[in-house]
Amino acid sequence: MLQSIPGVPRISRLTRPAAPAPERAGAPREPSPDGGDLLTSAETAQRLGVSSKALERWRGTGAGPAFVRLSRKTIRYRAEHVEAFVTERVRTSTAAA
Question: Could you give the number of structural domains in the chain?
Fold first, then answer.
């Protein structure tokens, strides 16, 4: 059994280099070349003030903003689609339209 030596840090063979920090949701990003800035579900949920789970439900029912499916598990939203989604829901009265 290994004994620690006072004043010497213990080194484990199982340590891995630290993974790069994930991109923060509020961090500025470069717009994509085609002008369509792609947002993650977390970023979109934050902009809309809803949960990521709500966005997931909306994708299933077709009630939310248009989305881009990059792979089976990767969903992104175009910033202009999110803004259009909000604009379509502007109301001046609570009466049925």
Answer: 1
The first and second tokens of residue 21, run together, are 């920090």
- Say if 65 falls within a structural domain: yes
Neighbours of 70 (CB within 10 A): 10
pTM of the predicted protein model? 0.61
64: Cβ contacts below 8 Å, ≥ 6 apart: 54, 55, 58, 85
Residue 21 reports pLDDT greater than 80: no
Range of the domain at 45: 38-88
29 within domain boundaries? no
- Mean pLDDT, the chain, whole residue set: 80
> What are 65's two structure tokens?
């903003």
In a domain, 95, yes or no: no
**Whole-number pLDDT of residue 6:** 73
Q: Is residue 17 part of a domain?
A: no
Return d(Cα 93, Cα 44) in angstroms, integer. Answer: 26
Residue 39 dihedral angles phi and psi, to the nearest 5° = -110, 145
